[in-house]
Specification:
By secondary structure, the protein is α/β, with parallel strands linked by helices. It contains 10 helices and 9 strands. It has a 7-stranded mixed β-sheet, sandwiched between helices. The structure holds S-adenosylmethionine (SAM).
Length: 250
């Protein structure tokens, strides 16, 4: 890692640490309010997370999330790490859960010959005042079907969902691409073997788990999920701290 990247890594870690700093005290408050100390004391021996969760009076939480990320920076890094070969032979792309279309606009700017479609829920599209004409906009639910394309992008989508829902999304995407196509996933890959500051990883994992029922995944979990969804292989390329490119092939 060169000096500039080391600085960027440290800066990103600090931002996540400060932005989520409230989680420590909030977690402690929740632990007390949920009666976890009492449950542990009554159990009198070590308890599994599943058993602990089952003993908690937790209501179902359904929180809609729409997170803006620095797409320009992310795509710049992806292209500099993976080169333009990432989109070789690709004539059309659908950005599933593409939100405000930032990623699609960046791709079209860099590769004007690629036909890009932003695909999202109608309620998301309704709030989007910047629907520019260089990309196509499709309103639908990814659990029903995904428009056909040579490649599908899933950028920060799957971490919001549990394994069962992710399998469904990945299967819909597989049906939408041809044999030579691929699904391009941008996500955090937890790598405990690397010298990684685990605090921001664990905090974001907890936020996603509590708020959405999703989770951050390790390399092994990503490989298993993609394999179980029927893909023949996948390639994982880290390109920024806490962000990797996962290419899944049918
Ligand atoms: C975390 S945001 C990611 C947005 C964008 N890909 C990014 O990287 O900034 C998740 C997106 O998935 C969309 N989404 C959630 N459920 C969906 C569904 N069932 N079908 C299509 N899009 C969905 C949301 O509206 C939102 O735009």
């Amino acid at each position: 890692m060169d000096e500039q990247m080391q600085e960027l890594t440290a800066a990103r870690m600090s931002i996540i640490r400060y932005a989520h700093g409230f989680m420590d005290s909030m977690s402690l408050k929740c632990v007390v309010e949920l009666g976890i100390p009492d449950i542990l004391r009554k159990n009198a021996k070590p308890i599994t997370l599943q058993d602990l969760a089952a003993a908690l009076p937790l209501p179902a939480v359904n929180m809609a999330a729409s997170k803006e990320r620095n797409t320009k920076e992310i795509f710049g890094e992806i292209l500099s790490k993976c080169g333009s070969g990432l989109f070789e032979g690709i004539g059309s792309i659908v950005d599933v859960g593409g939100g405000n279309g930032e990623a699609a606009k960046e791709i079209v700017k860099e590769f004007p010959s690629i036909k890009c479609t932003v695909f999202d829920l109608p309620q998301m599209m309704k709030n989007n005042s910047e629907k520019r004409s260089e990309v196509e906009w499709v309103e639908r639910d990814m659990f029903n079907s995904v428009p056909r394309a040579d490649a599908i992008i899933l950028k920060y989508i799957l971490h919001d969902w549990n394994d069962e829902k992710c399998m469904k999304i990945l299967q819909q995407c597989k049906e939408a691409i041809p044999v030579g196509g691929k699904v391009i996933i941008v996500e955090m890959v937890i790598d405990i073997d690397q010298e990684m500051d685990m605090y921001p990883v664990l905090v974001s994992d907890m936020l996603i788990m509590v708020g959405l029922g999703g989770k951050q995944r390790t390399r092994e979990e990503w490989e298993k999920l993609i394999h179980d969804a029927g893909y023949s292989k996948c390639k994982i390329t880290p390109f920024l701290p806490l962000a990797s490119l996962i290419e899944a092939y049918p």
